Fold this protein.
Amino acid sequence: MNDEIELLIDENGDKVYMLKKVHSRLDLLEENIKHLGLNLNQLNDKSYYKNKLIHREDGPSIENANGSKEYYKNGIKISEEKFYLEKELKDTLINKKDNKKKMKV
């Protein structure tokens, strides 16, 4: 049974006991993920793209697994404040346009 279990030291220096089968499968998974150009820490992150540029119109373009958020328009990073000011202006203009259409009908 002892030859099926191995002792590992994690990134914090803590001892971790793991089945060798599980460890070898995790290594293979990590290798495949790196081959795809991903980072293991990015697996729980959400990101949104438009025309291959990081972009989102209705919220943060990146939602990190740690809870932080980043805002981008057409690949350019902007502050959260600027994002919501632009969104509010756009929504106001759309509402005014819709109201004008309703008045004509």
About this structure: Residues 59 and 84 are 9 Å apart (CA to CA). The helical segments are 20-35, 80-104. The two ends are 80 Å apart (CA to CA).
